[in-house]
Design a protein that fits this description.
This protein is mostly helical. The protein contains 7 helices and no strands. The radius of gyration is 21 Å and the shape is rod-shaped.
Length: 110
């Protein structure tokens, strides 16, 4: 994802590579990842391929803004995906064990 967001070349087709991967995001991250990815796809579709040459040759302003919006959505998606997990997500299946240990510890301290 970082290679797509910060690479030297960002071809619109690179987003197609992410279509099977982004829906695999689980938990709360999916609430942010899926809309950001959908926004990036829609913003790309609004200017590519129909207005590509207007953007390349004349930097046509509406398409430049769409391109900037797409890039910002992809960078935001990258941050959502690499942001450190919360303690709850890190514990996963060991959460019930930790809670049991905390209850025992609380009883011992009484």
């Amino acid at each position: 994802m970082a290679l797509v967001a910060f690479g030297k070349v960002f071809s619109p087709q690179f987003l197609i590579w992410l279509i099977p991967l982004v829906p695999l995001v689980r938990g709360r991250r999916s609430l942010a990842a899926l809309p950001l990815f959908a926004a990036a796809l829609v913003l790309t579709q609004l200017w590519f391929p129909y207005h590509y040459w207007e953007l390349v040759l004349r930097f046509a302003w509406p398409y430049s803004w769409l391109l900037l919006g797409r890039d910002l959505a992809v960078v935001a998606l990258l941050f959502v995906l690499v942001w450190p997990r919360s303690q709850h997500e890190l514990l996963g299946e060991n959460r019930s064990r930790l809670e049991a240990l905390q209850r025992v510890r609380a009883q011992v301290e009484l």
